Amino acid sequence: MIQSLFPTFIYAASLTKESTLGLNKEIAKEAIRYSEIDEEGQLWSLKNYKGGYTSYGSISQLHKISTTFENLEKQINKHVRRFVKHLEMDIDPKELRMSSCWINIMPPDVNHSMHLHPLSVISGTYYVQTPKNCSAIKFEDPRMDSFMASPPRKHNAKLPNQRYHSLDPKAGQVVLFESWLRHEVPRNNSNKERISISFNYDWV
């Protein structure tokens, strides 16, 4: 008998059943406006997100200062509760609340290196603008530092046996994962900006 133990789950779904074109247009408009006036964020991005813009180091609680992002939070809450239920966490899903929410604008040729979101429970991204050939989000097997002498896996190995997995999200889609899971955004190979909103949920 072979059992599959300790699986890693990734949640991906459309934000709503309705069209998100209007919402995405409004979010993109606000995101660009922030990128133009957020001098602190521009300086932080220059050091930590070269070539792109993120409000992570400056305006990281957009859901508390913008009605647009407050409404986005309400929609994301529903997905987080579904995900928590699937994970069978022994908590009331309402005890998880959005603690941070920030803008990412990734122009062509920009990337975001491998990282995780320490001290949070659930992290994720809502995709606003995903032009053709823009970056996927790439996840790393969390056991990577324990493999030692383990041989590599075949190029066409089944998904559960692969060391990395890339997900190509679409505009209007929300992706969730547990915050300890390392991930990166490879180089944007499109000729347009990739715009997304990332967030963390903490246990309060």
Descriptors:
Jelly Rolls; 204 residues; 3 helices; four-stranded antiparallel beta sheet; six-stranded antiparallel beta sheet; globular; alpha+beta
Concise summary:
With 204 residues, the chain is α+β, with helices and mostly antiparallel strands.
Q: Give the mean pLDDT.
A: 96
Pattern of helices and strands: EHHEHEEEEEEEE
Helix content: 10-25%
| Shape label | globular
Kindly identify the CATH topology.
Jelly Rolls
Topology:
Blueprint: E1 10-14, H1 21-37, H2 39-48, E2 53-54, H3 67-87, E3 96-106, E4 112-115, E5 122-129, E6 137-140, E7 164-167, E8 173-178, E9 183-185, E10 194-203
Antiparallel strand pairs: 1-8, 2-3, 3-10, 4-9, 5-8, 5-10, 6-7, 6-9
Overview of this structure, please?
The protein has helices at 21-37, 39-48, 67-87; strands spanning 10-14, 53-54, 96-106, 112-115, 122-129, 137-140, 164-167, 173-178, 183-185, 194-203. By secondary structure, the protein is α+β, with helices and mostly antiparallel strands. The chain has one domain: q2cbj1_9rhob like domain (Jelly Rolls, Sandwich), CATH 2.60.120.
